[in-house]
Amino acid sequence: MTAVRTKLSSATMTGNMAFGAVLFLAFLSALSVASPCVAQMAKQDVYYAKEIWTGDKVIQDGMMYVVDGQVIRVGSRGEFNVVPTAKIHDMSGKVIIPGLVAAQTNLGGSQNENETLTPQIQAIDGFDFFADQSKLLKAGITSAQISPGSQRLMPGSGAVVQLAGDVIDRIVSEKDSLRIVLTSASRQPPRIYEPAVGPVSEDRPLETTRPQVASLPASLAVLRQIFKQAKAGDSTDDLIVAVQKSLAAGAPVRVSATTTAEIRGAIGLAKEFGFKLILENCVGLEPFVSQFDKWDSVVAGVVLVAPSPGKITNPSVDAIRQQVNPWKYARQLLDAGIPVAIRASSDTDLPQTVFSAGQFMQGGLTAQETLAAITSTPAKLSNADAQVGMLSEKRRADFVVLSDSPFRLGAQVMETYVSGESVYKVEEARDTIVVRADKVYVGDGKFIEGNVVVKGTTVRGVGDQVSAPAGAQVRDFGDAVIVPGFVDMGAGLGFGGPISGSASLATKLSEQLFMDDPAIKYARQQGITTALLRVNGGAATPVAAFKLGDDVRVIGDPVAIRFKFGDAPASAIASNDRLLKSGKAYTDSWIKYKKDLAEYEVKKAAADKKKAAAKPAAKPTDKKTDSKDVKKDEKAKEKAKTPEKKTPVKKPVPKEGDKDEVKEKKKKPLPDPITGTWDGEIDQERVPAQFRKVKMELALTKDEVTGTFTFFTRTIEIGGGSFNRETKELQFSITRGENEVPIKGKLDDKGTFEGTIELGPLGESPIVATRTVDKSEKPADDEEEEDGDKPEKDKPVDKEKEKEKPGDKDEKKDKPADKDKEDKKDAKKESVKKDDKKAEAKKDDKKESEKPKTEELKPPKKPRENKALEPYKALFAGEIPAIVETNNLYSLKAAAELFSKKYKLRTIMVGARDLAREPEALKEFDNLSMIAGPAFSVTIDKNPPTNMPQLFATEQFPFGFQSNGTTGAGQLPSAIQFAISSGLSSIDALNGLTQNPANMLSKKMNFGRIASGKDADLVVLSGPPFEFSTKVLAVMIDGKWVYEREEQK
Amino acid sequence: MLQRFSFSISFVAVCLVACSISVAQKPLAITNATIVTGTGETIEKGTVLFRDGKIQAVGADVKVPVAARVIDGTDHYVIPGMVESHSSAGLSQSNETNQNVPYVTVIDGIDPMNPYFRDARRNGVTTVRISPGNSTMIGGQAAVIKTGGQFIDEMVVDGVAGIKISMRPVSGSRMAHLAKLRKALSDAKDKLEDEEKAKDKKDKDAKADDAKKGDKNKVASPKAKSELDKAMNALLTGKNSAIIYCEKAMDVGQALRLIKDFDLKASLVVGRDCHKAVKQIAASKLPVILDPTLVYWEEDPRTREERKIILPEIYSEAGVKFVFQIGRAGSSTVGNNYMWYQAATAMKYGMTEKEAIASVTSLPAKFLNVDKFVGTIEAGKDADVVLLSGAPLKLNTWVEKTIIGGEVVYNKEDDVQLRRLLTGEEEDTK
Questions:
Q1: Residue A148 DSSP symbol
Q2: Among all residues of chain A, which has the CA nearest to that of B254?
Q3: Helix (H, G, I), strand (E, B) or coil at A222
Q4: How do strand A340-343 and strand A299-305 relate by DSSP bridges?
Q5: Over the stretch A634-649, which tens digit does the pLDDT of each residue have?
Q6: Which residues lie across from A415 on neighbouring strands?
Q7: Residues on chain B touching A126 (C-beta within 8 angstroms)
């Protein structure tokens, strides 16, 4: 054996090494003291968390006080006071655990010396403090034991370092324990060769043959010899001295021993020479199970290897039969009082340490025991537990912030701290919000437990197990209930008060929305997220839907057409039938046109092909005419717009007055730069472009100006108008809502008006307008005069003519265009005199639609686009429903007969009061649904009051609710509460506020439910919906919080 | 042979230099040149006069003896000969195979006919410290020499110019390399301590009868010491300094630890990666020799983000004193194989022109402790200057003449190789 020893040529350094290390550290600390940064104030931090796992206990709602990277105290929140200057880190809802300590790594690099016994080698010498450890830090590993090597019998001693922080302070334990590798890896070590036999010279004698330790008995024999000599203590051999020193330090010896024989050998050595063991990589523990109790005196700890996570290993059948899972022994060892540490199967698996260790819970380890196996126990085995591995006094503030308790699947590392400094932080997924509550209403009467994950404007998932990015924001509402945002199926919200004037189907309600209507804010505080807009008006009016978010979002305009079905059935049927008829005719004409156009295009393409083959030169001319036609069409369309828009709307009375004034004015010879039609624009960026256009119809009498002002598509009578002919100053005002809006300015030399308009919150905005049609009195030979002389009744037509005039001049040659106009006039007259000529209307429409047929190989004539009739297309296509307002029993039936049966429309009844009289009156009709409200309780004659929603529910009508309110829209949920108290089920009520409206309107509606892909409209309630004690805690519309109750913030 | 250098080598060296030029030499003068003296003074239309291998006078109105050979320096610049701090070129072999050889000296391995010296003269380098290569553990002794001369004995300025220690393992792991290095040093330290103890004891009881002790003293007496022990003693007692090569940033900490543990007088040769440890280097206040590649792109292994690393900037910001070495990329392209290019690079990244010129002349001279002889143009210093065709550190400036010890050792006109390179002229085949 002496031969063996002498061959180990490299000798160890002795006392100087440890001494040197101390000096080095002293030198470094001296450096840091000298550096100016020490003069700064101590860095003080307080961390609050849902749970703090200190290593020996779990503190709920805990706090941790850290000064200069050292833990000072840990306790429950408020248990102790800290200096007020300490920086507070609120990790509420998150969990703090100690930074993980990797029980064994090869971060020091591989050590492949030419000798197999190198106890003098220190792993710390091979550790690169500048290497990038971000992967491990991201996994929550803050310290690591560095192994000196794994392919030599006695590769050296290990060390423990922190994986981040100032290079100077990162060594936790410079020399932890001597390592011995008894596994097969040390028996066929790479890079140890027999030297080649070569020429021998005097000065370089051939080195002696190196030992081949090729078997376990040989390994053990060598080790026994070394330990024997070390114990004897009289050797001066460096190797022996190094071993001696390691043993004298009292540190246990780390022995890597996998098989039963290896473990037995290790234990034998330890017993024989009286040192303690840390057993690593043990597998063949089965025979020792009964001896675990007696291991206490020999084994300081066991490092078990976790199976590689997520790997299919195909174990041997024997292994399966024996169920040799490391966790089995983990439990038994712990029960026997032997500390167990868990290590990842390789350095590659280190980032999965938490998962790897979590597997051990299968063996019955508690979460705390499992956590200890990757934090405090490895620290203890490396004698580093006074510094790392636990969160208690005087230890380095190495900790990990988790999204949930450790080992719960889905618990993610949110942040990692080393010595009180954040060294890793998960990237925040700003656009993803996880809303947590006790229950979530997903619709159809179902409540489920769990979270709602919102990404962007939509819901990404609902339930207990939903994937979300690690950095998602989490809002935890505890015991709250999440329901979909409520829908008010009829409200006057967003108009800033009751809407004045009336609307036709051509009116775009969405264009009249006030962004800053305070009623919106109030309504959404009560959970209303979507509202259907309705206005009073003619027999058929549009209904628009919009979201009540900070940026008002229109979902559909129109989403339905609202019909008034009067209480006198006969006239109601007649008028509504007429409306529907014309609508249907219009729709059909377009359907036909589209069909014809398609046919024409096919034919034309064929003809073009022929032509192209015959006469390529003919093509350009064809094209020309084509484009002209298109232009013509467009122009005609434009012209058609204005008069038609106005016709269905009842002319405001003052208009008549205007004309009188116009007439009067005629007699005055003074130049009149005012009277006429003006087009202008408001120069205000915050007003959407389409709303900036204004139109004025002005008339000048002496210096008084009267007329109308049209903007935001509403026509308002002007008041207090005056024009100073000298200074050319024009001023007037309009009434908008309750406010007086002054408009004033000057005319320039060319007659262009430049002035300002007061736009409420938007402030004074510039406005510019020019007169497009001069209606001022002119010499008798003027063309205009004729028109002016026409009778008042024909005024609409006249106006139209006036406007057409320039067009006429331009396109005199375009006969089809003229014709078009004729048609238009006809149509106009008809629509004006609709009431009188109802029978003819249909004929005319037919005529119109038949016309294109007669032309061959000419493009089919495009039907005039009539904005007032446009919504009917969607109605008859079934895309939007008809909302029919009716009360009377006969009217109810008649309306159902007409809308549902005759025209096969999806019909929503509003009111339906008399259903209380005869609940089954509408039984025979399909496609019917109901809107209840604003009064839910109806009393007919002397009968007891009927709870209408309850009636709808029992009669199995789908139904929604309407408030019919403006500022009162927000009271809808509490009104429904009353309906519930009188017998409506709360689920029916909830459905009526959420999913039913969407179903009733259209399949395209994306609100009303909490499901993947639906709009993220959430109402967070403090308890079950409609309970008295339940409050709205928060409201989200389209993924944005629009309301949060004060105490929630 | 080795013994020659073990006693007061610098003295010998001075003698050698002095001897080599003591042969009767005509005075030499460069007139009408712009002289950048390196002392902070630039003399327009100045004259520098050499005599007996030394600078006799420098100034605007220096009288030129009739006997002197005169070089007209009109429109030309004169700068001090450049000094290179670290090179293992010019050796027949850069390293001994054995890794623990503190006793070998480069002087025994320098080949004055090595093309390196010709290139050095062509590029205006007149003084260089040759040291063993980086692939070693304790690799031997370095020497400061002149680049002009036929025989090494004529060239040596300082034969005790440091012992090369490398932190990079030649083979095997860093931890094993360090363990060996520490062992070698601590063995030597133990021996030294024993020796001192014995010496003390000997002094105390000078006439001890114990034969055994007497024997021991004999063994430990200086004369009987092995070359290895002597070399290691010089290192540990600070008589010779350590030139420690750090390849990676992680080596810096270990090197500093060794320096502290064994109380070494040291300078660092830092590899590229070491800039990461610049804080530690700055704290140690040790002078460093930078990697030849001063500017390069470094890729973050994780993010793949590329970052431009400018070594002179990093080190000067940290307050580290540094000098340059040059690469060995061949002499045909402009790059870090020229000292002036290194200085120009540093200037590009913020050094003043004066500092840049100093960084290749007076600063390395001071660094190598030979500033008494070289590095500036001052009366009394060695007659080592470079005559440039234009302003220094400019790309289109050529070295016209290199003068070492008052002799013109390089003349561009006679540089056949350069001419061939530049003109493509065929070799004369007669």
A1: S
A2: A125
A3: helix
A4: parallel
A5: 544 444 444 444 444 4
A6: A401, A425
A7: 173-175
